[in-house]
């Protein structure tokens, strides 16, 4: 492969990674915002943890393949553990 072709291929791969990153970050932000809204909209006496459990049940029915990946895939679990270790995560309370 010529240098020009290699450079063009590298640029295309970088653009693809950039677009993937944008889509992933936008999706994570959207899910986060939706969860915050759900908790804020719960009745005063509702337990957020119980609501999340119901969300998980609903997703398991609607998105079984994704939920199986989230709950069982070791690479996804490792990504979670890495995020916890590298970021001061704090739970938002109602």
- As a whole number of angstroms, the C-alpha radius of gyration is 19 Å
Beta-strand percent range: under 5%
The percent range for helix content is over 70%
Count of folded domains: 2
- Describe the sheet with the most strands: none
Determine the structural class based on helices, strands and strand pairing: mainly alpha
Give the beta-strand count.
Answer: 0
Give the topology string: H per helix, E per strand.
HHHH
Tally of helical runs:
4
Protein described:
- The protein has 94 residues and is mostly helical.
- The chain folds into two domains: 1-41; 45-94, no CATH class.
- It has four helices and no strands.
- It has helices spanning 3-41, 48-62, 64-72, 74-86.
- The radius of gyration is 19 Å and the shape is elongated.
- The protein starts with a helix and ends in an 8-residue tail after the last helix.
- 0% of the residues are buried.
Short description:
The protein has 94 residues and is mostly helical. It contains 4 helices and no strands. Helix 2 (48-62) crosses helix 3 (64-72).
SSE topology sketch:
Elements (H helix, E strand, L loop, with lengths): L2 H39 L6 H15 L1 H9 L1 H13 L8
Helix pairs in contact: 2-3
């Amino acid at each position: 492969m010529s240098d020009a072709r290699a450079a063009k291929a590298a640029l295309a791969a970088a653009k693809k990674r950039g677009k993937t990153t944008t889509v992933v970050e936008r999706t994570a932000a959207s899910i986060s915002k939706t969860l915050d809204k759900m908790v804020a909209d719960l009745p005063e006496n509702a337990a957020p943890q119980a609501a999340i459990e119901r969300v998980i049940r609903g997703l398991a029915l609607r998105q079984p393949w994704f939920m199986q990946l989230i709950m069982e895939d070791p690479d996804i679990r490792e990504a979670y553990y890495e995020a916890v270790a590298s970021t001061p995560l704090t739970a938002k309370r109602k």
